[in-house]
Amino acid sequence: MAINLSNSNLGTRENRIGSITGYIGSLKDLAEKSECGTLKGCSRCFSQSSSCLSSCALNQLAGIRDVAIIHHGPVGCSVAGASAYYMSKVMSKKRGVTSNTVYVGTDMNENDTIFGSTQALRDIIIEVNKRYSPKAIFVSSSCATGIIGEDIDSIVDDVRDEVGVPIVAVHCEGFKSRIWATGFDISDHAVLQEIVQPPREGIKSNKINFKNFFESARPEIIEIFKNFDLEPVFLYCNSTIEELSHLSESLATTCICGTLGNYLGNGLEEKYGVPYVRSINQCGIVGFETWLREIGKVTGRSEKIEKYIEEQRAIYLPQIEEIKKELKGLTAVLGMGPGYTFEVSRVLNELGITVKWALAWHYDKKYENGDVPPSMKYLLENDIDFEASVADQQNYEVMNILNRYKPDMYLSRHPGSTVWAIKNGTPAIYVADEYMIFGYKHTLEFAKTILDAVKNRSFEENLAKRSHLPYTDWWYQQDVDKFLEEAK
Ligand code: SF4
């Protein structure tokens, strides 16, 4: 689908790429229906937990150094400022840099929702610019401004010359999408629209754009890429506006998770011809090698990459093979965002662990370029199948599934989900860090973590004995497949 940067408002994932939040069946069925275009999402009559897309979008933007986020909405919406503070202050401190990013809520009140508050917004933008001298300003909408039709774009256009720094409207009305990951696309759209500039003449770059969340493996990846004469530019956590303005000059774009990086990667490719590395992600051995080889192909560094792979294989493969003997035959259920669910399923398969059920918090049946996500394609092509469902973090369904399959472990990237599994007596592995299964070294560590979790189950057993869960036997006997059918 063509990316339209002339409009600040971006279609939702549901509308643009047919993403869904409701499905129960098998992985094969999900992928086949995605490929032939017959996949239809189901809705539930009850949503236990989800989150507003503005948190995703504005957290991403707040990771950029020295910018201002102006969240135009009621004070409740600005609760996203708490995690934005984390992205800006804590992450910059961790890296040893300074960020003067500010997050300002406009505190819309009842009068504003009746009479509008464009004048107040205008005044706030001018004041924020004067007080904090940001390098760029992102002006976000909210449900309230969307409902009353507040014309944020006109205000932004109106003050553009006066503020003298890049300024862009970010359309974050939470009601427009049930998929919080739409927020990732919204932040990318804003960056592509206003911050990224056309490549400068005569610049020869060896940079590779690397979209990730918290850049925890930054030093390690910089060292790895030195072997290939490549310099990664990590986005957006701790990025500067200057760095972002030159993304169009890089040799390629890659990301840690397709759900996170797909829009930016495709946008840079479509607008500036920067190749987007389309492969399964770096989790596990197969993933890491496939990803590296694709980078080699795109940047003309295949020889150097093959040499690196050979050296690393000799160090790590014997150790991983040894642990695999102990993991063989274990079973798992997992619940994560769709990017990780199907990547981690592949790694578990690689380690000899059987996936009983995989839940994805949403599912993108096609990416921006019209292809089925590579992680799904890989599982299909390698004849890997298991029961799968799409549910926007419905933990009550997770509990039902855990009770039915009694797996050896539950894996999730969301702590609120792992807590329930542990109270249920299931060993849970919180795959918090995005680089927890990255490459040879971390795949080995991941395998050891699994072994630790399943070998010593006393914590889960003791906690389960002392926990009174709200779920009744009646609920555990329900068939979640039927539950969704009824809610269709
Ligand atoms: S934008 Fe809408 S969904 Fe998001 S926090 Fe505000 S009111 Fe809630």
Topology:
Elements: H1 13-17, E1 22-26, H2 27-36, H3 53-62, E2 68-71, H4 80-95, E3 102-105, H5 110-115, H6 118-132, E4 137-140, H7 143-148, H8 152-163, E5 167-170, H9 182-195, E6 207-211, H10 218-226, E7 231-235, H11 241-245, E8 252-255, H12 258-272, H13 284-299, H14 302-327, E9 331-336, H15 338-350, E10 354-360, H16 374-381, E11 387-391, H17 395-405, E12 409-412, H18 415-423, E13 428-430, H19 439-455, H20 458-466, H21 473-477, H22 480-487
Parallel strand pairs: 2-3, 2-4, 4-5, 6-7, 6-8, 9-10, 9-12, 10-11, 12-13
Antiparallel strand pairs: 1-11
Iron/sulfur cluster is lined by residues 52, 54, 73, 77, 142-143, 174-175.
Structure explained in plain terms:
With 488 residues, the protein is α/β, with parallel strands linked by helices. It contains 22 helices and 13 strands. The protein has a 6-stranded mixed β-sheet, with helices on both faces. Strands 3-2-4-5 form a 4-stranded parallel β-sheet, with helices on both faces. A 3-stranded parallel β-sheet has the order 7-6-8. Helix 3 packs parallel to helix 4, helix 13 crosses helix 15 and helix 13 packs antiparallel against helix 19. The longest helix is centred in the middle third of the chain and has 26 residues. It is globular and about 65 Å long. The two termini are 28 Å apart. Iron/sulfur cluster (SF4) binds next to loops.
